[in-house]
Structures are given as structure tokens and as C-alpha cells.
Amino acid sequence: MSLRPYLDTFPSLGERVYVDPAATVIGAVTLGDDVSIWPGCVVRGDVNSISIGARTNVQDGTIVHVTHEGPFTRPGGLPTVIANDVTIGHGAIVHACTIDEFALIGMGAKILDGARVSRFGFVGAGAVIAPGKVVGEGELWVGNPARLARTLSEREIEQLQYSAQHYVRLKDRYLGMTPG
User: CB within 8 A of 107, min separation 6: which ones?
Assistant: First the structure.
């Protein structure tokens, strides 16, 4: 795995974390227990911090970054805060935003500065959540710019919970903790 400092700040990893050898985690990044970071991901906490909660999976090719404090940004800049049990699909861009528990970010989606994806929020593949927008609890947003499509069914909410659990099991196989 590629864990690198930024200046004097090193990433901090919880227990049973999997960072693929082809992924890069830099600087002020905190990974909770059972987090998985898959091939080709870049998690870059250089000009602000990134926190990724327990049992969250960040799938192949995803970029997670932050915003610095400057003349055209908010005081203090913006960190990225990702809660427990989140699924971030392949090739997503997650930038200076907040993602709450059991949310799912679809493949190729973009979550921009100051946006929030609430608990059980679902951002469809390729959707772009504009700066400052809020995806409500249990809502599906799609498109560019993303708009509310509908409320999730109970079955879909169960699927979001399953996704996080599935990736913990998959991560354990990669770590050699369970048989294939």
C-alpha cells in the first residue's frame, strides 16, 4: 500500500483496514476500522483533512480530496467527512463534502464542495451533486446537475446496508482473514 505523509502529517489507520497496493493515501487522512480503499484510488489529505468512517468502501479509481483556505474559499477551507458504512462506487470524485451513514455514491458520480449526502442517500451513476446541495435522507438523485428522482423503497435501503457489509467481507478475503 502507498501511505505517504504530507509535510509532517501521516495517514492514521484503524484496525483491519485494507489499502490496495495500487491505491495512494496521503497526509491528514483518518481511516476507521474495516475501511477498504481499492486499486487506483487517491485519498489526498494535503490542504485539509479527510475522515472515512468504519466499514466504508472506496472503490477502484475514486478520488477523494479537500479544499484549502484561500481568498476564494470558505474560512478554514473544507474537509471531506465520510461516515460509517458508506459505499463509494468506481471512479467517483468526492471533493470537500460530507457523506452520512449508509449512503451510496454511484460509479462516476461527483460530489462537490460543501455538498452533503444524508443518511441512506443514493447518488446515481454519473450524477453531479453541485456545491452546497443536500441529498436528503433516503433520496435518489440522478443527472447532471443532479436532481431528486424519488424516495428509496425499504428494499433499496436494505440494499445500501448490504453493500457496506458485502465489502467488509470482500476486504477480509483480500487480507486473508476469511476463506474465499
Answer: 59, 89, 90, 91, 92, 125, 126
CB contact at 8 A, 133 and 117: no
Range of the domain at 115: 2-174
Which grid cell sits at 52? 472515512
- Evaluate whether residue 123 is within a structural domain: yes
Average of per-residue pLDDT values in the chain: 97
Q: Pairing relation of β-strands 104-105 and 93-95?
A: unpaired
Asked if residue 179 is part of any domain, the answer here is no
pLDDT digits (tens, 9 = 90+) for 60-106: 999 999 999 999 888 999 999 999 999 999 999 999 999 999 999 99
State how many domains the chain has.
1
- Rounded Cα–Cα distance for residues 163 and 87 (Å): 7
82 in Cβ contact with 66 (< 8 Å): no
